[in-house]
């Protein structure tokens, strides 16, 4: 084995210092041959060069003096654990001895302790362990039961990685509904152009044209989508109040119910216009507000006598895209509120298959400050969805701006480069087992490398994201040609 250094100083149970006799990169896997537990897997979390060069001698060096410098490369390693005859991964309960040799870990040990060996039927292949030829497969059942988040700064590769995950969900015939504010995911229909990476990662180029459905409230702009509207008749008065932006349920529920009963009795297939006319006839300030808010609802064009049916929207084993490109932000919130509510209610009654609800730009739909029309239902799904087979995936470029209760319910996190200090703080607070070294590394992650936590793994892993089988729809726009 390749010896890289020796343990020195005070040795803890979670981490230790080592003097390195050859360069090892931060994040590399190491091992110590412990007398009690055999080979224990560790990871280099931090590195520092210690020297005896003081200020005075540094000045002298600057003036051209011949000054010998004694230096040591010092590492801090965190202990991951060892595998005890097929049982769970355990950590030593007695510290390693100072002076013990530290080696580079071989792939067999890494795969064994990290749990990377198995190709499970329920595995979503997202990429390779950084620097190794070991596949990282997220356990799809865990994603469902414990929810997930994809976090990175803008341009960090969130949508690309989410595309990888949706490809895997489709391959496993998992139903998903994707809230797509920028209309980026229609490209899942088309096979990617093959490049050298496809072979290295063992990925085929493949489109999912027959498995992608697309809906949009604006089919003039989004021509490949089917129109998305909601049936007025199927809306419960409380839900209609959400559309009307009226939160004062106590005051408005009674008059609105009366209005609906009255109109429903004379016109079974009533439209919003019929409701507006009836509200006009009503007297007093309450009806005036109802009238005004119904006019607003009419302008959103989201409600129709016969809306998109649930069986059309959710199809087992297919991905339904809700393309919101060009749709006003307030209307987007209403769409998300209605869809999320319908999915949740119908999952409770088991009228639709278990499904994964993906929310892109989730900080707009479940903000930490203020509320969106869909905030409450998304919080409910985050806390209770798992009981009913409704998995949630939130994607955001602003971890600090998404509702904390939603983020903390996401137990699988895929983190790409994040540099904003507030976002880093929010991430560090919502993830267990993130070391200060890892938080620092998140700031310097290259595009295409993600830190994976959860997903069936007991320790955070750095993952080189696999290339897409399908085309990526979120390419940056080039203003000036190269
Ligand atoms: N794993 C990857 N391999 C190769 N290229 C990638 C990878 N991830 C991202 N990219 C490229 O980086 C660019 C930005 O990626 P992406 O659109 O996924 O970013 P984003 O985080 O979703 O950004 P935004 O917040 O603006 O939506 C794209 O041009 C994409 O092709
Ligand atoms: Mg994106």
Give a brief description.
The chain is α/β, with parallel strands linked by helices and 482 residues long.
Give an account of the 3D structure.
The protein is an alpha/beta fold. The chain has 3 domains: 3-114, no CATH class; 123-228 and 315-465, 3-Layer(aba) Sandwich (Rossmann fold), CATH 3.40.50.300; 237-304. It contains 15 helices and 21 strands. The chain has helices at 55-62, 107-114, 140-146, 158-171, 196-201, 237-244, 249-266, 272-281, 285-300, 310-313, 329-348, 375-384, 404-408, 421-430, 436-443, and strands spanning 3-8, 15-20, 29-34, 38-51, 71-83, 89-90, 101-104, 123-129, 135-139, 148-151, 175-180, 212-216, 226-227, 230-231, 303-304, 319-323, 355-359, 390-396, 412-415, 449-453, 461-465. A 12-stranded mixed beta sheet has the order 9-8-21-20-19-10-18-17-11-16-12-13. A 6-stranded antiparallel beta barrel has the order 1-2-5-4-3-7. The longest helix is centred in the C-terminal third of the chain and has 20 residues, at 329-348. The protein is elongated and about 95 Å long. The relative contact order is 0.15. Adenosine-5'-triphosphate is lined by residues 152, 154-160, 397, 447-448, 465, 472, 474-476. Magnesium ion binds at residues 158-159, 474.
* Domains, number: 3
CATH architectural grouping of the largest domain: 3-Layer(aba) Sandwich
Low-confidence stretches: none
Strand content: 15-25%
Which terms would index this structure?
32% helix; binds adenosine-5'-triphosphate; 12-stranded mixed beta sheet; 3 domains; binds magnesium ion; 482 residues; Rossmann fold; alpha/beta; elongated; 6-stranded antiparallel beta barrel
